């Protein structure tokens, strides 16, 4: 990582480079680094708690707020770019009718195919009009149309199933993050004195690891293998991971796309599309598995809490362990969705069926429609090829298309909810229950907890029975709300 901390080559390594034999595998890189650190700087503090390497340079420029943390790709984009590129921002609302909206539409990717269909149908119409009639019996429309309908239905249903599975797994991730964070923050005790301070900082570290798991999973699903992204580096930059060792600044600053390539990708030209796994394939070092490594650190934290008896109740221990198992289930499930697309044979066959139908369509329409064959073919092509394009776009729900899942929004939601959980100390039951404004029998009575505490159990139960009777429609005389119907009973309570 850093040239100032790289150890000189061992003698065996030099011999191996000279052709005298293979270099042995380094048994313990960490101990070797410590030994080298001690030998090169004897006056330096070499205690076990001292950092072996300096603070990584990628921690210098990080996001300052939650909003900027998860707006990396849109921070400097214009409103036009944000409108035509995704994923969609769920906070935005459009008042345009649905059939007039362009944000989320596949029409931009249909421009070239529809232009080709327009030219093709025009050519067939002109040849049939002025040279030789190429029209055929439209009975073929019925036969082939049924097959095309089945193919597109299968394509759309399988693609949507993958999209829905991706959303379900991220919903499970949000749910598990909430449960695990609550277990750690509320059910894990804090000891007295300095140990309590360590417990508090440990809790905050665990919270960051929960968020880091979601962010790391997002980057992994998008084939972004580095660790220095602004929304991730500050959360896991201190961990010893393979991704940290393989950090490469060039992956964070890819070369700018040419105008031809950018336009080609926008129009859906397959020859202009890049391999989404190119950054992973070009890595010169092992990338490891960052979400799984984060789970290992989180599991180690839970084990320490159990060992130092800050997490003693077996039910809470099981909740924490089951929470990490659920996170692993999310990891495995999203990888299954990502790495198991529709078999290539199906994709090729469906695409061929759709295009054959569209190309033969002008021949079948000319005898009945003549010049209307041209717009009729274009409309039919938009319907058929549009459904096929939608299926292709949502097949991978974790990408950057407009209709893909807004993973940045989900990560920001987890981050904000974790901030809400940690904003206050774990609630003290005796503190909030005994407050004067705790209206325990609201809306029957506006008397607070201290007044009801002075009454007998029989009076409390009688009031609860009165609460039910006061809320019945016969007692109210109409379908009024509980607030209105209970006003008459407050005076007697």
TrEMBL record:
GO terms for molecular function: chloride channel activity. The keyword Nucleus does not apply. Keywords: Cell membrane, Ion transport, Membrane, Transmembrane, Transmembrane helix, Transport. This is Bestrophin, RFP-TM, chloride channel-domain-containing protein. The chain crosses the membrane at residues 110-128, 134-154, 345-363, 369-390. Residues 1-58 are annotated as: Disordered. Residues 7-23 have a biased composition (Low complexity).
């Amino acid at each position: 990582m850093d040239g100032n901390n790289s150890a000189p080559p061992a003698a065996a390594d030099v011999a191996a480079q000279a052709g005298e034999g293979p270099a042995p595998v380094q048994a313990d890189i960490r101990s070797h680094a410590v030994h080298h650190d001690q030998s090169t700087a004897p006056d330096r503090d070499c205690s076990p708690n001292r950092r072996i390497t300096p603070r990584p340079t990628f921690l210098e420029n990080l996001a300052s707020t939650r909003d900027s943390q998860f707006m990396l790709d849109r921070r400097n984009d214009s409103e036009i770019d944000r409108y035509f590129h995704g994923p969609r921002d769920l906070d935005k609302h459009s008042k345009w009718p649905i059939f007039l909206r362009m944000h989320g539409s596949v029409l931009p990717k249909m421009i070239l195919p529809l232009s080709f269909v327009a030219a093709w149908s025009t050519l067939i119409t002109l040849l049939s009009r002025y040279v030789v009639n190429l029209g055929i019996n439209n009975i073929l429309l019925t036969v082939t149309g049924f097959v095309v309908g089945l193919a597109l239905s299968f394509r759309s249903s399988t693609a949507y199933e993958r999209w829905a599975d991706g959303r379900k797994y991220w919903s499970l991730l949000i749910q598990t993050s909430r449960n695990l964070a609550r277990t750690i923050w509320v059910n894990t005790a804090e000891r007295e004195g300095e140990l309590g301070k360590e417990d508090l900082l440990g809790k905050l570290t665990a919270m960051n690891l929960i968020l880091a798991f979601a962010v790391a999973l997002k980057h992994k699903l998008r084939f972004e293998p580095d660790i220095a992204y602004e929304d991730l580096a500050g959360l896991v930059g201190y961990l010893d991971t393979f991704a940290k060792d393989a950090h490469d600044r060039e992956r964070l600053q890819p070369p700018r796309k040419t105008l031809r390539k950018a336009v080609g990708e926008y129009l859906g030209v397959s020859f202009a599309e890049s391999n989404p796994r190119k950054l992973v394939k070009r890595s010169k070092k092992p990338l490891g598995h960052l979400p799984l490594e984060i789970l290992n650190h989180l599991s180690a934290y839970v084990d320490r809490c159990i060992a130092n008896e800050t997490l003693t109740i077996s039910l809470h221990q099981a909740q924490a362990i089951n929470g990490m198992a659920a996170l692993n289930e999310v990891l495995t499930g999203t990888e299954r969705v990502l790495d198991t697309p529709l078999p290539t044979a199906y994709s090729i066959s469906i695409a061929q069926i759709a295009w054959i139908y569209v190309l033969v369509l002008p021949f079948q329409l000319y005898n009945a429609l003549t010049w209307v064959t041209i717009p009729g073919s274009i409309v039919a092509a938009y319907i058929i090829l549009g459904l096929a394009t939608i299926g292709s776009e949502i097949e991978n729900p974790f990408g950057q298309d407009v209709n893909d899942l807004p993973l940045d929004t989900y990560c920001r939601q987890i981050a904000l909810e974790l901030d809400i959980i940690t904003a206050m100390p774990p609630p003290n039951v005796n503190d909030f229950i005994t407050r004067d404004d705790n209206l325990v029998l609201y809306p029957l009575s506006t008397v607070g907890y201290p007044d009801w505490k002075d009454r007998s159990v029989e009076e409390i139960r009688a009031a609860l029975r009165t609460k039910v009777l006061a809320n019945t429609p016969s007692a109210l005389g109409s379908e009024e709300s509980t607030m209105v119907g209970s006003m008459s009973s407050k005076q007697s309570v």
